[in-house]
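Reopening: structure tokens for the LLP complex, inputs below.
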Amino acid sequence: MSILRADLPRWRHSKRIDSDGTPGSYEVADTPEGRFGGESSEYRRLGPVNGFFAHRSDGLWCEGVRVADLASAHGTPVYIYSQGALEWRLNRIQKAFAGLQPLVCYSIKANGNLSLLRILAEHGSGFDIVSGGELYRVLKAGADPDKVVYAGVGKSAKEIREAIQAGIFQFNVESPSELKAIDRLAGELGARVRVALRLNPDVDARTHAKTTTAKKETKFGIPLDEAHDLFAGRGSFPNVDLNGVHLHLGSPIYTVEPYRVALAKMADFIPRVRQTGAVVETLNMGGGYCISYDGREVITPFDYADVIVPAVRELNCRLILEPGRYIVGNAAILVARVLYLKEGWAGRRFVICDAAMNDLLRPALYEAYHHIWPLEGPPSPVFFQGSGNHLKKVDVVGPICESSDVFARDRELPSLEEGDLLAVFSAGAYGLSMSSNYNGRLRPPEVLVAGDESRVIRKRETYQDLVRGEV
Ligand code: LLP
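Re-run output (same inputs, fresh job):
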């Protein structure tokens, strides 16, 4: 894997070395490539620092807005989104798979903000939902129900009824009991519903244990033989059109191999099912398409498409995709302010910032790596040639009363001062959507940047929000 910096030769920055040997100010030249909208290599827009979030001489910019100005205007912590990045990423998926004209259903669990959903819907996206709450969100965002698919192992009768009444495209059913329930509820409502069976193909996607979903010991999907029998016995479900299969292998997946293995299993399974006279019209490959969190080059939607498109064409199915992280992950940052610097035992340095695990849970829950860098000063040597000898190892932590409230341990960062602003990159997916009010903390606002304009797409919570509904 190569480091992004090789792809950024046009980011000229001259480094001034101060008399004590530490780098002084950087002059980062503005180039068309460094500005939003410029065409350049695939990678530079895939990493956390990309054409939409870019360091310039006066700090980090999101498209045409200086991030520090947004932090002053809206306070910290604050999530900042780039509309350009969001649209570009949806477009990459659409382009990569264009040969099959897939139904792309953005997985809204990654980030369900109404404004983001509206933008994606306007660009033709459908949606993958997993609850009545997510159905409410997509309908409120103006989504076309005919482009909505609904997965999840525990849909309640109320949720199933609501989805039938909304006229969604398809249920992804995860057990025989759920299939019976959907058939019964559809009958009661006088409806006929489209169903795909979510399969458990027993494929190891080699991702974090907590986001592994296709191995046989997980709760997801139906074992292949049992699914085969459900297709063969489809006549027992008169209110259901059982006509698709669904897979979701895990998240994130950094190689195409698991998709290849799962599709090889489908090349056996789908013809076997068809021999029973069943129709398999749709093949939903789920999500899991990776992003770069640390600047290293990762595979792109085109690499996944190279494996998926020919196999699905061979099976003569309509392709459905459910990307979440790929679309929104590197389209946002979380900005925090350094509250205090503190030294612990044996010189351990803590940078205590005003964002915490309640705002972005991934590092605490999965030991996930997020690139962190000050908004101002020299850009990171991970992305730009430059010396790292001015860096110090610190732990970046939040104010929550848990020792897991750590964004980064032993992370090399430039000298920081209390009051400095930090960007936590790649925060768009599973950031705000997994946030909470733990420790009585108010969820941060979300600000969307488009060109040189910005608007609040979710307000900062208030103390009143914390107790709403309590008696
Ligand atoms: N489809 C289904 C059925 C899913 O369960 C998921 C994610 C997706 C699609 C979207 O996967 P993506 O394209 O975003 O990889 N909280 C974890 C990720 C959990 C993913 C759960 N399912 C994280 O922060 O890494």
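Residues 329 and 429 are 4 Å apart (CA to CA). Confidence is low (pLDDT under 50) at residues 1-45. Marking as resolved unless the reporter disagrees.
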